[in-house]
Amino acid sequence: MSNTLRALSALLAYPTEDLRAAIADIGTVLVDEGQVSARERADLWPLLDELRNGDLYGLQERYVELFDRSRSLTLNLFEHVHGESRDRGQAMVDLAALYERGGLTMTANELPDYLPLLLEYASTRPFAEARQLLTDIAPIVAALRERLVARGSTYAGVFGALLALSGSANAEPVELAAPMDIDADWAEDPVVFGPDAAPGCSSDRTMSRIRAARRDPRTEETNHV
Question: Could you tell me the residue range of the domain that residue 218 belongs to?
Answer without folding.
Answer: 2-223
